[in-house]
Amino acid sequence: xxxxxxxxxxxxxxxxxxxxxxxxxxxxxxxxxxxxxxxxxxxxxxxxxxxxxxxxxxxxxxxxxxxxxxxxxxxxxxxxxxxxxxxxxxxxxxxxxxxxxxxxxxxxxxxxxxxxxxxxxxxxxxxxxxxxxxxxxxxxxxxxxxxxxxxxxxxxxxxxxxxxxxxxxxxxxxxxxxxxxxxxxxxxxxxxxxxxxxxxxxxxxxxxxxxxxxx
Length: 215
Fold this sequence. Notes:
With about 220 residues, this protein is mainly α. About 80% of the residues lie in helices and about 0% in strands. Helix 2 packs parallel to helix 7 (about 140-160), helix 5 packs antiparallel against helix 6 and helix 6 (about 115-130) packs antiparallel against helix 7 (about 140-160).
């Protein structure tokens, strides 16, 4: 397929919404939502948010990026884009370990249970993608966007506050990112759909079940 404007737009979208950046977009939405809610003082005046930001920065971006760069320098992966299915196995496994550490540290930091459940769901989504990758090239970008959508819905379920603006913005961006992956020829429609559903269900269901059964 010849390259054109849509091709380069797709590259930009894929870079802006790389899976490693998704936790920070979720944090941005959380900070904005909390600041607009009646719970602003309870959350923002505590250490929970600062702890979450600090731990997320280190274990979902800095360490994974260092791992990927190290694997590339050692020749364990052929490209940082990891376009080949075989390139993704080891990075996915090591990033899953980073996400597990992330969850453990958040748990020890005593962040709100809803936040912890959402991060655990995101970790399970990554582990699912890592497991499926052995047999099928599921889309990590779509999984990340599904997780971001699920995070918005999780916040709505746990607080009872739903913002159509948040939801529609994330939904539109998710569709654009999935279309970008298709335009670049990285995945099939089935692979991006499966990825989005994986991220959505894993991040939303734990909070929903907890809210319905415990609260």
